[in-house]
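We emphasize that the prediction below concerns an isolated chain of 237 residues; any contacts that depend on oligomerization or on bound cofactors are therefore not represented. The input was used exactly as deposited, without trimming of termini.
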Amino acid sequence: MSQQLAFDSLVAAAATRYRPAGRKAYYFARGKLGWDPVFAAILKQGLIPDKARLIDLGCGQGVLLALLAAAQDPRHSAGWPRGLPPLPRDTVVRGVDLRADAIEAARIALGNGALVWVSDVRDVNLTECDVVAILDMMHYLDYEAQRRLLERVYTALAPGGRLILRAGDASPGVRFRFTLITDWLITLVRGHVQKRFYCRSGEQWLELLQQVGFEAEMQPMCVGTPFANVLLIGRRP
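Result of the prediction step, given as a token string:
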């Protein structure tokens, strides 16, 4: 099976978990997992190891957690291309988000396979873990809160643990302006007016992670989209 077919099959299985949560939750999961390149990148680069204790901060309706849940099916493991890292098995996953409706959809989709709850990431209790995912959320926090959260993440990660951070790249350009407009419209549709986003360039995000103590690297994460995003991978030595 080709890489794309294998990933599409996994996406379909993950999205199907949301059918009991309603059409909106199902189609969002199907579109987000299938269209956003970050999810394929996480799996194809083997960023989540077997038996990882993972927490997704700002998880929304938990689509990353649903993808990992679908990966536990032996049929997907058997059909996963040999040239890629194997799908992560026996992961222990948690997720938090401020939006109660999103967390309810996550609970329906994930059942007993994950612990998800409503919480502000600035206050959530972070116990020891192996992977922390923060996707498209940091620019909602002010600059000092960003640093404090990353310091808490660093402390919570076990030695060798990994931070997976996707953020907007505030380097000048049309892509970034489009990214900000889209984020503003999304918050407006959700009934909240975001007066300001706290953005950094990709290099500034990388420098911040290094200041906190991470061994960090950065890669573009906007291929096939109109957005200006980067993926930062931080490792606690």
